[in-house]
Amino acid sequence: MPDYRALAEQDVVGRCVVRDGALVYANARLAALAGVDAAALVGRDPSEVFAFDTVGGGDDDDDDIPDVRALLDGQRPVPDGGLSGRVRIRRPDRSPVEAMVRVTDIEYEGAPATLAVVVPPAPARTDTGSVLERATADLVRAADRRDVCAVAIDTATEVLGFEAVSVYTLSTVDTLTAVASTESDVTLPETVPTDGPVWGAFLTGDTHVVSGDACGLDPSMDLIVVPLGDTELLVAVSEREHRFDTAVELMDLLATNVEAALDRVHREQRLERLHEATRDLMVAETESEIAEVAIGTARDVLHHDMCGVHLYDADADALVPVAVSERTREFLGTDGAIPTLEPGESLAFDAFEAGETRVYDHVHEASGVMDPTTNLRSELIVPLGERGVFLAASTLPDYFDETDVSLAKVLCANVEAALERAEREAAFREQRAELEERNGRLDEFASVVSHDLRNPLNVAQGRLELAREECNSEHLAAVAESHDRMAELIDDLLTLARQGRGLGDTEPVDLETLARTCWQAFDTGDLVVVDGLTVEADRSRLRELLENLLRNAVEHAGPDPTVRIGALGSPEDPTGFYVADDGPGIPPDDREQVFEHGYSTDEEGTGFGLAIVRSVADAHGWEVRVTDGEDGGARFECLL
Question: Distance between CA 123 and CA 257 in Å, rounded?
């Protein structure tokens, strides 16, 4: 007789050893077919494990063929070479599964015994390997959830021959809704009950086989329930019960590939929608508008029904609620009051102070939780820099995975950037309003200067001309000089008033061309352009700057000055430009004063020229300074 100990290592089929009317050994495969542990089969009567049919085989008449039960009970000897037949393997709370059995005599642990090799029939189907390989390729190409579900359903139907297959998704916190189904006579429900074994299998994340009545079908049908990650579920049904004993492994393999494909398309779609939401964030003008966009995105894109944004209030030293989802208000109660989060009283403030993203899988058990009696189980807290926090929560434990955390961080980075932008733009709007108010005052000042000063001056100049016609006094020349001096002062005052205005449109300006245009107003000295360069500037304002620097050189550098203009740094990539003369220069102690309004060392100067220079530079965001030139004169440098 063959030695069973060598055969026992082969667990591809079910095996059991019977002696004296009881099982003394059962392998793992037989236990899996029976739906129990192998140890639970040992000691049982064969009739408790199998339901018997009449065997077939051999050359004898049917009446002379002993049934399998008699062989296993030892009531009849096993024919030489063994005998084959059919049995049904009993399963707790489920229909038996049909199988073929072959009975032979063996020696087991030194004594004669009977070996039963149990083989469930494989379902007729197409070439499984090629179909699964094709399905894997199709899943890689799938562009969205609909494509993935179609591949899953077609494959489950083609490979395993199920009568009906559906894919469900977690549409709300406690509802699974069908998103794709086969068209057949057997119809799975549109939604899955939340208190039955199908929902239980979804929560555990493990593949289960359950009775058809769990989905309102005939109890004679069986369902294979395969979770696909955290939000999808595949359910297949068949009236041919034996299929499930060989289908689970294949379904698990298919489910692994489907889950990976769903995770990929979900992530791609959510990232795409996050980028779309970024545009909405970047046009929102206020903190509350930004927070509302963030909540809508978290709800609709990241599927966080319960979420909120709290921003830090420095005066209150607390995180103040700015926007929350409707589901959050419903969860907190009828009044919808959202608590303010203060230091030392909440996990959210702790995360905000630490600047750390934190995930709690059982938040009610966490040390420092605000309300230990809460029905919340999972919480995700993502700081918004120094501006506040984003919170998401769920009544389910272990709800947030790495993808949830990663995408929430992307959203919160965009929210933080939007808040910073809104703050800058609010400050800019405030500055613009102040500038417009100041411009209004300057316009009023210019009007006064232009009308109330220039008109009387024009009258005085006209009277002076009449006086010259009537008499020739040496005092009239002095009066004319005073009139010219007053006109010059008025012109400089008007120019200075214009410096308070914002810049006009800027453009690339060729500095050499503009400087030579300005130099035409002077009939003395030489202008030397050392380096040609282009400056991004308001052309008219830059002309005012150059005119005043050139006038300053002509008036203070002595007769026939040489004025040089060149680049600071490399001419190809300049950091600024300079205007230098060959005059006596400016003493170091006076170099800051020269830019003050009214400062001048020339009795005939107005003291506004260099003040205008600094004003134009400031308007462009440049820095202007004075130093010594190479020829010992004054050198004015504009740093761009």
Answer: 22
Q: What is the pLDDT of residues 246-258, one digit of tens each?
A: 567 777 788 888 8
**327 membership: H or E segment, kind and range:** helix 326-332
For 37, half-sphere exposure in the C-beta direction (CA atoms, 13 angstrom radius) is 2
3-state secondary structure of 87: strand
Closest alpha carbon to 225 in 239, 241, 212: 212
- Chain-centroid distance of CA 377 in Å reads 24
Which range, 79-83, 86-90, 473-477, 489-493, is most confident?
86-90
Measured CA to CA, the distance from residue 444 to residue 576 in angstroms comes to 35
- Measured distance between the N- and C-terminal CA atoms of the chain, rounded to whole angstroms: 101
pLDDT tens track for 330-379: 888 756 678 899 898 889 999 999 999 999 999 988 888 888 888 899 99
Strand, coil or helix: 252: helix
Measure the CA–CA gap between 304 and 297, rounded to whole angstroms: 9
Residue 377 or residue 243, greater confidence: 377
CB-based contact 548:610 (threshold 8 Å): yes
pLDDT tens, residue by residue, 23-48: 999 988 888 888 888 899 999 999 99
C-beta separation of 72 from 284 below 8 A: no
Helices 402-447 and 474-499: angle between axes, nearest 10 degrees: 160
* CA-based nearest residue to 445, from 371, 497, 381, 367: 497
Measured from the Cβ of residue 517, the count of other Cβ atoms closer than 10 Å reads 12
Give all strands of the β-sheet with 388-394 in edge-to-edge order. Answer: 318-324, 306-313, 388-394, 378-383, 358-360
Q: How many Cβ atoms sit within 10 Å of the Cβ of residue 27?
A: 22
Least confident window among 122-131, 194-203, 460-469 = 122-131
Q: Which one, of 153, 126, 134, 120, lies nearest residue 244 by Cα?
A: 120
Computed on alpha carbons and rounded to an integer, the radius of gyration of the chain in Å comes to 46
- Give the whole-angstrom CA distance, residue 491 versus residue 479: 19
What are all long-range contacts of 345-349, with beta carbons under 8 Å and residues at least 24 apart?
345/370, 346/319, 346/370, 347/379, 347/381, 348/310, 348/319, 348/381, 348/389, 348/391, 349/318, 349/319
- Tell me the HSE value of 221 on the side-chain side, using a 13 A CA sphere: 21
Instruction: Give the containing element (helix H, strand E) for 399.
Output: none
What does pTM read for this prediction?
0.46
Beta carbons of 176 and 192 less than 8 angstroms apart: yes
Question: Across residues 414-427, what is the average pLDDT?
Answer: 90
Question: Could you read off the pLDDT of 610-635 as tens digits, one per residue?
Answer: 888 888 898 889 999 999 988 789 99
Taking each continuous run of H as one helix and of E as one strand, the counts in the chain are 18, 24
Q: Which stretches of 183-231 are DSSP H helices?
A: 197-204
Q: What angle do CA 165, 169, 173 make, to 5 degrees?
A: 145
Q: Give the pLDDT of residue 63.
A: 40
